[in-house]
């Protein structure tokens, strides 16, 4: 800020504003100070400005103190709102009426703060007038709060002047509170309309928020989450905002012709901010994959991509094949982003492992088992279909293809028809593979899990190694042999099922369930052994007490001994008598404990 006693240059005429009202109100008093704002001079009078503006008063006092001269010319750099807002502020100082509106209230509030138009200088000064308008008009309406927040973006110099007076912060809180109020009113109206059908329309304010800049929008959504707005409304707003903001996404060839530095940076900021705003609830898969594709295209941060992949893995069993076909934008690589799918699978399997680890403390163990196993089977089918889709890509390496095959457990694939089809497609698309590479790839196919149709195709497939064809023919021969002896096989199978012996031809799902069941039975048996051990300890204590009591009666003890000796003499004594007594004990009915469980059986 600079001051000077020299008059303004003659070639810069005063503005029409200064001419219009100074000549009309102060026609007999010439202007005594020129203030330049954004290169535009304003010829004004000191005393109405000094009466309301603390900043002008300080400038005049400093000039008088330093040079003993009156201030006649000064410049106000970085004035909020520019010359137009300064003109409105000067009208206020001169008492000329004008209207405070949604579009100019932020600029006027910042200009009033810049000029220090406080109540210390004059009552009902411009700061108080603008604050009253904000509190009574703007903050009570969601729509007006959004408009005022948008107008904060227009204050380019200085860019943080509105933040200094907490205008954006108060707008954000007002939007969040009004949105929660709208949600409550809408919920009550839905309860009253009992005959309403179908889904309710989305909140009207979702479209209004799309006009905000991404940093303001992120602050609004965070405030809404804190105030308790429904996650469904937040997700709907995020989807609408991303759809409106990312319309300019183009493919790589077109983007190289544009200013990639500005467009991609803005879009990258939008994607990363939206992902960071996801609530804890599940986000629609279509939206997650859409954001992931955009993120791959514009190269978002690693943390952003990992967050998207982790959220997709939480509901991977619901994806479709088209969702997983993520194109690669980098040159000279495979058509599809296989690495991303591999990372998603790793996250999915870790999720299943964590659920199974925590199931021991959960009462609904069987339900968790069935849910996890069902999810694994669905993902196995999807991945086999994905492998068949990407297999013909000539740029797909063998290592990446086999990594996707190996990552899934063997019991996930009930049949290997899908895996065989994928491997056959890979062999067809990569004819230059060596014989050893073909063998290492075909070893993943279990010929016993191939259907008859797949076996017939594999037996006539020239692309397969000879060893695999032999295995297929052997499996087919065993299948035919089992069909011929079908009746005896069915009888033996029924006998095994009735006796509880698992069949050798059980499916992986049955084997997995059997292992889980055996584990639970072992735990139950351990608890039974512990109960039996405590009962034996109690019986031992009682026996000791009985022996102590009987030791005090010698006649009784001698009588029992004589009876025992008499029995031995009657039956001849010796080893034969001991065997007979043991046989008698076995034939007797065993006593049951208090729990009704056979004590001898509970030990086993």
Word description of this protein:
The longest helix is centred in the last third of the chain and has 43 residues, at 508-550. The chain has a 4-stranded mixed beta sheet. A hairpin with a 2-residue loop joins strand 2 (33-37) and strand 3. It has helices at residues 16-25, 46-52, 54-67, 82-94, 105-114, 126-138, 142-152, 161-164, 167-192, 205-209, 214-227, 231-245, 252-255, 260-276, 285-298, 302-313, 321-324, 338-358, 365-390, 398-406, 417-429, 435-442, 452-459, 466-484, 486-499, 508-550, 554-570, 574-587, 599-602, and strands at residues 3-4, 33-37, 40-44, 73-75. The chain starts with a strand and ends with a helix. Helix content is 64%, strand content 2%. Helix 2 (46-52) packs across helix 3 and helix 7 runs antiparallel to helix 9 (167-192).
Label this structure with key terms.
single chain; 604 residues; mainly alpha; Potassium Channel Kv1.1, Chain A; 4-stranded mixed beta sheet; 29 helices; disordered C terminus; coiled coil; NPH3/RPT2-like; Phototropic-responsive NPH3 family protein; ubl conjugation pathway
């Amino acid at each position: 800020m600079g001051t000077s006693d020299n008059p303004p240059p003659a070639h810069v005429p005063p503005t029409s504003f200064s001419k219009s009202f100074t000549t009309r109100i102060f026609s007999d008093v010439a202007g005594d100070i020129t203030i330049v704002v954004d290169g535009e001079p304003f010829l004004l009078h000191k005393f109405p400005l000094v009466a309301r503006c603390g900043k002008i008063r300080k400038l005049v006092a400093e000039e008088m103190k330093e040079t003993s001269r009156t201030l006649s010319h000064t410049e106000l750099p970085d004035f909020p709102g520019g010359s137009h807002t300064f003109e409105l502020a000067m009208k206020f100082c001169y008492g000329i009426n004008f209207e405070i509106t949604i579009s100019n209230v932020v600029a006027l509030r910042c200009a009033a703060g810049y000029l220090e138009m406080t109540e210390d200088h004059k009552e009902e000064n411009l700061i108080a007038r603008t604050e009253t308008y904000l509190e009574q008009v703007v903050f009570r309406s969601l729509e007006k709060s959004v408009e005022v927040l948008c107008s904060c973006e227009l204050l380019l110099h200085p860019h943080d002047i509105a933040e200094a007076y907490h205008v954006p912060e108060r707008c954000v809180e007002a939007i969040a509170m009004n949105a929660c109020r709208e949600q409550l009113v809408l919920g009550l109206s839905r309860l009253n309309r009992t005959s309403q059908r179908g889904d309710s329309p989305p909140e009207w304010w979702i479209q209004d928020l799309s006009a905000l800049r991404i940093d303001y929008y992120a602050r609004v959504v965070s405030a809404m989450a804190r105030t308790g707005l429904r996650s469904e409304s937040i997700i709907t707003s995020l989807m609408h905002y991303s759809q409106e903001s990312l319309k300019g996404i183009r493919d790589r060839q077109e983007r190289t012709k544009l200013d990639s530095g500005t467009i991609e940076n803005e879009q990258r900021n939008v994607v990363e901010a939206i992902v960071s705003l996801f609530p804890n609830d599940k986000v629609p898969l279509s939206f997650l994959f859409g954001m992931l594709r955009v993120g791959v295209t514009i190269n978002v941060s690693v943390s952003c991509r990992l967050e998207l992949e982790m959220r997709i893995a939480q509901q991977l069993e619901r994806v479709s094949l088209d969702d997983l076909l993520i194109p690669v934008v980098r040159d000279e690589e495979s058509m599809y982003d296989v690495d991303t799918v591999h990372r998603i699978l790793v996250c999915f399997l870790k999720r299943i492992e964590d659920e199974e680890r925590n199931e021991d403390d959960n009462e609904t163990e069987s339900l968790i088992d069935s849910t996890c196993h069902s999810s694994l089977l669905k993902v196995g089918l999807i991945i086999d279909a994905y492998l068949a889709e990407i297999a013909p890509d000539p740029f797909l390496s063998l290592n990446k293809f086999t990594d996707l095959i190996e990552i899934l457990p063997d019991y996930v694939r009930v049949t290997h028809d899908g895996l065989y089809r994928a491997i056959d497609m890979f062999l067809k698309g990569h004819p230059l593979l060596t014989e050893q590479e073909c063998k290492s790839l075909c070893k993943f196919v279990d010929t016993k899990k191939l259907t008859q149709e797949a076996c017939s195709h594999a037996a006539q497939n020239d692309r397969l190694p000879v060893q695999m064809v032999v295995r297929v023919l052997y499996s087919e021969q065993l299948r035919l042999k089992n069909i011929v002896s079908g009746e005896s096989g069915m009888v033996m199978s029924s006998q095994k099922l009735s006796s509880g012996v698992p069949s050798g031809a059980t499916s992986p799902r049955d084997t997995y369930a059997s292992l889980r069941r055996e584990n639970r039975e072992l735990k139950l048996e351990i608890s039974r052994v512990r109960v039996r051990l405590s009962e034996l300890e109690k019986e031992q204590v009682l026996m000791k007490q009985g022996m102590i009591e009987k030791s005090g009666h010698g006649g009784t003890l001698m009588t029992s001994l004589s009876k025992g000796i008499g029995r031995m003499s009657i039956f001849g004594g010796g080893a034969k008598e001991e065997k007979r007594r043991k046989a008698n004990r076995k034939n007797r009915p065993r006593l049951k404990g208090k729990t009704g469980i056979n004590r001898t059986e509970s030990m086993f």
